C-alpha cells in the first residue's frame, strides 16, 4: 500500500521463488494515472524492442495492444458515463457525463494456460511462483501459442527485430523474482495501481477494494478474474469499471483444449470412414 | 519533438480537416459526436491474435492430406493386387511427406530449431501430436516405398525377397494408419484454438480436411493415368461428402461469430473451394468427365485450405466475433 514505504509488497525483497509461493498482479484502474511508467520499465529491464512510433488517435494510447514487443499496455478508455461521484466540468452529474479510465494490461498468467498446453516444444513452462514463462532458447516459433491464447497476449516477433521468430510475452520478470526483486512494472508504478504480491493476499485485497469502491458510488466496479470458465482464474487480475468488452477482455475466456475431445472424435471417425470407404471401393468396384 | 515531425503534421492536417468538415474520417479517429469511441471492444482492437502462419501452412494442409490419404489408397491397392497403383500412390505419399516436412520447417520463426519439436510428446497439443504423426508417417512411408520398389523390381530372390514383401506390407499398412491421421489432425489443429470461426466448426474441419485429402489423392492418381473404377468411386464419395459439408456450412451459421466464413474475401475462398470439391466435381463425375472432376477437386481442396487460414485471420482480428462466440 501507498504510505507503507519500503514495507509495501511492491518494494520489499522477497523469496517467493525459493519458497514456491504463488504470486500475482492486481491492477487497479481507479488509482492509475496513465503515466506508462510500467511500459517503460518493462521495456528497459527486459530489453524489449520498440513497438513502433505511430500515432493512433485512440485517446492517449499509442501502444495499441499486447504483443511480442509489448508486454505492458496502458489502455485509455473514454466513456460517456460518470466515474463514481466525480463531476467532470462545472455541471452536475447527469449533464454530459464523462470518464477517463486507465488500465495497465498484461499477460494474465492463467491458472490453465492455453499457450502452455499448445506449445509443442515444451518451451512454455509453469514456474515455481505459478507464472507462465516462455523459454526463449527452446522456442522454435511454430506460432501455435498465438492462436491458443484466449486473451490475444502472446505473439511471434517479426523480422528484423532482435530475437525475431520466437514467441514473446510478459515473463513476470522471472529473472528479477529469482533474485528476490519485484517485477519492474510493479516496482516503478508511482500510485501502486499495479500491486505485486502473494496471490491469495491480492485476491482478498481486490475483493476489499471492490467493496470500498462500491460504497463510494462506483456501482459498476467489479473484479475481472474468470474463475468460472475453463481458464480457472488468472494470476494477473484486474479491477474494472463497467463491462470487460470495453477493455478488449473476453467475458468468458476458454482454454482451447476443451475443444480437443470433440475435434479428435471427428478426426478419428473420418480416419476410420476413409479406410472403410477405400476398402469398399476396391472390393466392390473392381 | 519538432513541429515538422510526421505526427505533428498529421495533427495539423486533422485540425484543418475537422475545422472544415466537422468530421475526421480515418483510422482511430472518431471525433464526430465527441470523443467516445464507438468501435466494438477496445477501439476495435483484436481480442485474440490472428494466426501468424503464411502460405506454407495451407499448402502443407493440402500436401499432407493428399500424401496421407495416398498411403491409404496404396494399402488398399496392395491388398487387391493393383501393384502399379500402389507404387504410384507410395511415391506420392513419400514425395508428399518430404514436401510437408520442408513446408513445416519453412514456416517456423526459427527453422534451425525445428528439432525441438521432438523434445516432448504432448497429447493435449494438437501441434505436438501432428509432428509425431508426421514423423511416424515418414518413418513408415519412405522405407515402405523402398521395400516395395525392391520387391517389385525383383532385385533379390528367395528369403530376402520374402522378407522385403512382408516388410513392404507392414510398412504400407502402417503408412495408411498414420496417413489417415495426418490428413485429419489438421482439422483438430485449427479447431482447438481460440479463433471463433475455427473452434465453432471443430467437428466439420477434420471431416472436411480428411475428405479433401482422400478426394485429392484419388484425383491426382487418376490424373497420373490410373483410371480405374475404385478411384472413381472414391472420387464420387469425396465429392458427395464435400457437397454435404457445403450444405452443413450454409445452415450452421453463428452470426457475427463466424461471419468470416460467409463474408469478406475469406468467405469467397471457402465458397469457391467447397463448390469446386463438392457439387462441381460431383456433376463432372456423373457426366463422365473424370479428369476434369479430379482437377476441379484438387484446385478446390487447395483453395479451401487457403480459405480456412484466411478465415482464421479475419475472425481472429474481429473483436465482435470473439464476443459473439461466447454465446455458443
Report on this model:
The complex is a heterodimer of chains A (286) and B (328). Chain A is built from eight helices and ten strands. Chain A is of the alpha+beta class and 286 residues long. Chain A has a four-stranded mixed sheet with strand order 8-1-10-9. In chain A, strands 2-3 form a two-stranded antiparallel sheet. Chain A has a two-stranded antiparallel ribbon with strand order 4-5. Chain A is globular, with a radius of gyration of 22 Å. Chain B is mainly alpha-helical. Chain B is 70% helix and 0% strand. The longest helix of chain B has 34 residues, at 158-191. The model of chain B has no long low-confidence stretch (mean pLDDT 91). At the A-B interface, strand 2, helix 3, helix 4, strand 6 and helix 8 of A face helix 1, helix 2, helix 4, helix 5 and helix 7 of B.
Key attributes of the depicted protein:
heterodimer, A: 286 residues, alpha+beta, four-stranded mixed β-sheet, two-stranded antiparallel sheet, 16% strand, globular, B: 328 residues, mainly alpha, 11 helices, 70% helix, elongated
- CA-atom Rg of chain B in angstroms: 25 Å
Radius of gyration of chain A: 22 Å
Low-confidence stretches of chain A: none
- State the secondary-structure class of chain B: mainly alpha
Describe the oligomeric state of these chains in a short phrase: heterodimer
Number of strands of chain A: 10
Shape of chain A: globular
Q: What share of residues of chain B is helical? A: over 70%
Q: What is the count of DSSP helices of chain B, taking H or I runs of 4+ residues? A: 11
Helical proportion of chain A, percent range: 25-40%
What is the spatial order of strands in the main beta sheet of chain A? 8-1-10-9
The secondary structure category of chain A is alpha+beta
Main β-sheet of chain B: number of strands, strand sense, barrel status?
Answer: none
Alpha plus pi helix count of chain A: 8
Task: Give a topology summary.
The complex is a heterodimer of chains A (286) and B (328).
Chain A: H1 16-19, E1 23-27, H2 37-46, E2 72-79, E3 99-106, H3 114-118, E4 124-126, E5 132-134, H4 144-148, E6 155-156, E7 167-168, H5 174-178, H6 184-188, E8 194-198, H7 199-215, E9 221-224, E10 236-241, H8 260-284
Parallel strand pairs in A: 1-10
Antiparallel strand pairs in A: 1-8, 2-3, 4-5, 6-7, 9-10
Chain B: H1 6-21, H2 56-79, H3 83-107, H4 126-152, H5 158-191, H6 196-199, H7 204-223, H8 229-251, H9 264-286, H10 290-316, H11 319-325
Helix pairs in contact in B: 2-3, 2-5, 2-7, 2-10, 3-4, 4-5, 5-7, 7-8, 7-10, 8-9, 9-10
Amino acid at each position: 500500500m501507498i504510505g507503507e514505504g519500503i514495507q509495501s509488497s511492491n518494494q520489499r525483497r522477497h523469496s517467493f521463488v525459493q519458497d514456491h509461493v504463488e504470486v500475482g498482479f492486481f491492477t487497479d484502474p481507479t488509482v492509475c494515472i496513465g503515466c506508462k511508467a510500467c511500459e517503460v520499465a518493462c521495456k528497459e529491464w527486459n530489453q524489449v524492442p520498440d513497438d513502433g512510433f505511430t500515432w493512433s488517435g485512440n485517446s492517449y494510447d499509442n501502444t495499441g495492444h499486447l504483443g511480442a514487443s509489448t508486454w505492458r499496455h496502458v489502455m485509455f478508455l473514454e466513456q460517456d458515463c460518470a466515474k463514481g461521484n466525480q463531476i467532470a466540468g462545472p455541471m452536475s452529474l447527469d449533464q454530459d457525463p464523462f470518464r477517463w479510465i486507465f488500465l495497465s494490461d498484461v499477460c494474465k498468467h492463467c491458472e490453465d494456460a492455453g499457450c502452455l498446453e499448445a506449445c509443442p516444444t515444451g518451451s512454455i513452462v509453469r514456474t515455481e511462483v505459478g507464472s507462465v514463462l516462455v523459454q526463449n532458447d527452446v522456442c522454435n516459433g511454430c506460432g501455435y501459442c498465438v492462436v491458443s491464447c484466449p486473451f490475444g497476449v502472446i505473439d511471434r516477433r517479426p523480422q528484423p527485430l532482435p530475437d525475431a521468430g520466437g514467441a514473446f510475452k510478459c515473463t513476470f520478470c522471472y529473472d528479477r523474482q529469482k533474485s528476490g526483486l519485484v517485477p519492474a512494472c510493479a516496482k516503478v508504478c508511482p500510485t501502486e495501481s499495479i500491486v505485486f504480491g502473494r496471490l491469495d493476499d491480492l485476491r482478498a485485497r481486490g475483493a476489499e477494494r471492490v467493496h470500498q469502491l462500491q460504497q463510494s458510488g462506483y456501482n459498476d466496479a467489479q473484479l475481472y478474474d474468470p474463475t468460472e470458465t475453463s481458464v480457472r482464474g488468472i494470476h494477473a487480475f484486474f479491477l474494472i469499471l463497467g463491462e470487460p468488452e470495453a477493455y478488449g477482455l473476453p467475458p468468458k475466456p476458454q482454454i482451447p483444449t476443451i475443444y480437443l475431445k470433440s475435434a479428435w472424435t471427428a478426426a478419428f471417425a473420418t480416419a476410420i470412414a476413409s479406410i472403410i470407404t477405400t476398402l469398399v471401393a476396391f472390393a466392390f468396384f473392381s | 519533438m519538432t513541429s515538422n515531425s510526421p505526427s505533428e503534421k498529421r495533427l495539423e492536417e486533422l485540425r484543418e480537416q475537422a475545422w472544415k468538415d466537422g468530421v475526421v474520417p480515418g483510422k482511430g479517429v472518431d471525433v464526430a459526436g465527441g470523443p467516445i469511441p464507438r468501435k466494438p471492444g477496445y477501439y476495435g482492437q483484436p481480442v485474440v491474435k490472428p494466426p501468424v502462419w503464411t502460405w506454407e501452412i495451407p499448402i502443407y494442409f493440402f500436401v499432407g492430406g493428399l500424401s496421407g490419404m495416398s498411403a491409404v489408397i496404396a494399402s488398399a491397392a496392395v491388398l487387391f493386387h493393383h501393384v502399379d497403383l500402389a507404387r504410384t500412390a507410395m511415391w506420392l505419399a513419400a514425395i508428399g511427406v518430404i514436401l510437408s516436412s520442408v513446408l513445416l520447417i519453412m514456416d517456423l520463426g526459427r527453422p534451425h530449431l525445428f528439432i525441438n519439436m521432438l523434445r516432448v510428446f504432448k497429447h493435449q497439443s494438437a501441434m505436438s501430436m501432428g509432428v509425431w504423426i508426421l514423423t511416424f508417417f515418414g518413418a513408415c512411408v519412405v522405407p515402405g516405398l523402398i521395400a516395395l520398389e525392391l520387391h517389385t523390381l525383383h532385385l533379390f530372390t528367395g528369403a530376402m525377397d520374402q522378407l522385403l514383401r512382408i516388410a513392404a506390407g507392414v510398412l504400407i499398412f502402417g503408412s495408411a494408419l498414420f496417413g489417415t491421421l495426418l490428413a485429419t489432425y489438421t482439422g483438430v489443429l485449427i479447431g482447438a484454438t481460440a479463433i471463433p470461426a475455427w473452434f465453432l466448426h471443430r467437428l466439420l474441419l477434420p471431416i472436411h480436411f480428411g475428405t479433401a485429402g482422400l478426394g485429392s489423392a484419388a484425383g491426382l492418381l487418376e490424373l497420373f493415368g490410373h483410371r480405374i473404377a475404385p478411384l472413381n468411386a472414391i472420387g464420387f464419395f469425396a465429392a458427395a461428402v464435400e457437397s454435404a459439408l457445403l450444405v452443413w456450412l450454409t445452415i450452421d451459421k453463428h452470426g457475427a461469430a463466424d461471419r468470416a466464413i460467409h463474408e469478406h474475401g475469406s468467405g469467397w475462398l471457402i465458397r469457391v473451394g467447397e463448390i469446386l470439391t463438392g457439387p462441381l466435381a460431383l456433376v463432372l463425375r456423373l457426366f463422365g468427365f473424370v479428369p476434369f472432376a479430379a482437377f476441379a477437386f484438387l484446385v478446390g481442396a487447395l483453395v479451401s485450405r487457403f480459405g480456412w487460414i484466411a478465415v482464421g485471420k479475419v475472425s481472429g482480428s474481429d473483436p465482435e466475433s470473439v464476443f459473439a462466440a461466447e454465446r455458443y
